[in-house]
Design a protein that fits this description.
The structure holds 2 protein chains of 2 kinds. By secondary structure, chain A is mostly beta strands. In chain A, 11% of the residues lie in helices and 39% in strands. In chain A, the strands form 10 sheets. In chain A, strands 1-17-19-18-14-13-4 form a 7-stranded mixed beta sheet. The longest helix of chain A has 20 residues. Chain B is mainly α. The radius of gyration of chain B is 19 Å and the shape is globular. The chains are: A mainly beta, B mainly alpha.
Amino acid sequence: MTDPIFRDMRQQFTPPPELVDRLRGRLAADDAAASGDGAPTAHAVPGRSPGLNQHQAANQHQAKRRARRAAGRGAGPAHRADFARPPRRVSVPLLSGAALAVLVLAGTVVYATVKGPRLTAEPLPAPTAQAEDLVSSPADYAAVYAALEGVWQSGDLQGYGFLAKAESGGMPAAESGDSAAQGQAELAYTDDSSAYTGTNVQVAGIDEGDLVKTDGEHIFVASLSNLPSDPYSDPYSDSDSDSYSYSDSYSAELADISVVKPDGEGTRVVARIDVASQFGDGQALKPPNSLVIADLMLFNDVLAVVAHHNQATIADPAEDPAEDPAQDPAPGANLSPEEQLKLLYDGPTIFKTAVLLYDVSNAEQPRLLTKLEQDGSYRTSRLLDGKLHVISDHWIQDRDSTDPDDPATFAPSIAADGDSQVIAPADLVIWDPPTGTEYVVISAIDLASQQRVAQKAILGGVDTLYMSFDNIYLAHTRWQDQPNLLGRLGLALEGYLATDADSSAAQAVFTDLIRVRLAGSDFEVAAQGSVPGTLVDQFAMDEHESNLRVATTVWPTDSSEAVSSLHVLGPDLAVIGQIEELMRDESIQSVRFDGEVGYVVTFRQTDPLFTIDLADPANPKVMSALKIEGFSAYLHPWGEDRLIGIGYAGDADGLTDGMQLVLFDVSDPFDVSVAASLAVPYDDADALWDHRGFLADPTNSLIGFQVRDWGMPTGTPGQAFAFFSVSGDGFEQRFSVALPDDWYATRGLRVGSDFYVISSSGLRVLDGDSFAQLAELDLAS
Amino acid sequence: MRPDDRLAISPAPPAGAHQADHSHQTDPEFFALGDHLEGDPGARSLVRTETAVERHGAMVFGVAVTHTACRGDAEDVFQEVFLAYHRTAPRCRDEEHRKAWLLRTTLNIARRLAASSWRTRVVPLTADDPPAATAVSFTFASERQDAIFRALATLPEATRTVLHLFYFEDLPVAEIASLLDIEPGAVKMRLSRGRADMRDRLRGELFDD
């Protein structure tokens, strides 16, 4: 299937013998250290990467606490407060002669540019036209097809875009919470809804889908099932009963819902919904169809199950010239298992998003109410006022499969209980010009009546979504070729010459934005805009008093230095205020908007936390820039005066081993400081990338999240769920429960007074005070 | 951080033997995983690791090369991956499982290393220093291969990973989707766009669909 040149290149990836020898040396040394049972040596990888050096950072406060709690144990080295940077070094890569000559030439030229005036990617001119001029509802399907033809003919499929950190998530109820101060030292932050903790969401009041949902009475968990519903199950497995999935990815086998009655020691599974079995009109779904649960949503007595409903197809080799005609596509022909798998199901996959609504008023006997479907790969969902908004991405993959006379082949369809219809032209929106052949499909489903009340499909992709109470904002990354310096000089070189492996010197990147207004039970595409740069995740957008605040990292075409910036857009998504250059040579790692204040964490050299005044939308101003080491990947406001950051630890040289929790004192935005920090000696945590993995329990002044240790360079591999108390003073570790290695997307909840640590594989119940384990359930079938 | 660095890769499933190493933990009582995990200590096996290096070393190194900034970093990643494999001694059902474990670990470690070395790597300050054009830090047997590699290096990581696994490791779409924890459709989308990008960069036919 692939050209021999790739096999040839692959051959050259054989590790050189001296590298293997070095590895042997390290393995032997590691074995000796481990069996010696002494303190293992710090494994600084010889000479190359200071970032992997072992370094323990614990601040003095934490050291004191530990010393108090356990006399005799040594505290870690005190936190270094100075930020002296080492002198910059030059790293000279190995180069072949010819390449070197080319590079020196280009380097001189590029250097001249770098030292010249800063050229940033120019944002698109703010749209001066009315929104109606930029979008159109096509009069009929012929107009839709014409728009698609335009895209195909231009060959200009825009905007690859990056995937957002996590598709759904939200802000905690921090904004509405009251802080009941009990003296200076104990800034306890409490919350009214103390019966149970919900999903950690971006906007309080707008729920986001997750694999675990509770209403305080029952907990619904998307669970692993061994049903052979995955067409990509392991072809190497012989046994019929063993549907071993190639990967341990949870998304490959989620097909059941466990209904759990939370009851401390008496916690038990009271029902199990087999979603796939009820989908195919009484028959279980079989390959090549698959149904995999993606998210749950709960509203009153209705449980919504959002699932990927995909159908694999077999490619027709005759149509695909890349296929080797000598290969016989029929399984069982003279092909190795690998080759068979490649040919089987190698055609375009048909993606649909299914929404199943269940009546769970009697949770022990859930009842299927209705099945709704929409074309497209599921992206995310939001719940507002009892209406479930489901967003999917329908990509017209193959021009040849479309038929101008059959709208179903080039426009998305929706279905209710099996009745399918193409979305009407009046509900389609086409940008002028359309940016690709993907539709964003938005459905609004009223859960009380179990009806779809509105739908809209917009021809144009979406990468990140943010929903406020009034609007849905769709963001799409767009890469735009710009002639690089060499191109402008007329030098023709094969391939691009990048000044840096991480930046493509000849492409500028923008984020296009669409505002979809929630008009009663309908949608209305209201505005279009664009900002330079990329969004780190959904938290980079926030609406406040009709204005949209957006933080982006801009990648100038003529420099390898990223620029972090902040923009305020009006209702027409035109820029009304901005800080074009928050920081040079730093990229944004995390953002949190909190009313009239915005917090932005950037990272490269000085890693500041910026506190930005957004009271005047036309004049955003930096109030303070706190230099910290390491960076936070997720920010969580805590009460009025504190901001929690969870991220990676660092020192003057860059990132170090392990993570850290930082408690920022934001009581005076002009003088933000670190109130406390705690080293969390693990390598990674899901919550860094998916905010839903973060448990915030203000009622008990507690937070929790899963942590994982890769066991390198030193340490014990494994994962756990860790709980910490939070006070105005800082963090205190309370407890950690070790988790089996195959648990994924582990969530922590509190229901009543007990804690539940849950994944699609199982559940642990912990006593709310002592964290003693009260019960343990296996949820995988 | 490049926009595509946030590729959602599910963590590799280490299982099995471990060593009770508390040296770097602030509170051994709190973070004592050792008592909870199963597996027999001493399941480390140099022979096992050596075999893995022999069978999958090129795959690990290759992924490391295309996912780090320079050869030195790739060598670091190579060592870290097999060191982790050696210590963790994951229970693997079969060779494919082992391969998947190694691939995911390599991608994870390469990303981590790229994040940290990107922060400390320098930008040349004077005209005398060559630019850090580390896209050419690894050289191949022919100009054409070099060009392919250079072009690949300029792609966003998400596309690059998929292209690498598809072309260099010959993995089918389904496997790539599994390994990267993304939808097969997303894999195909990236493949298709990656091919288009590579076509543009190379003005060649190598990447026609």
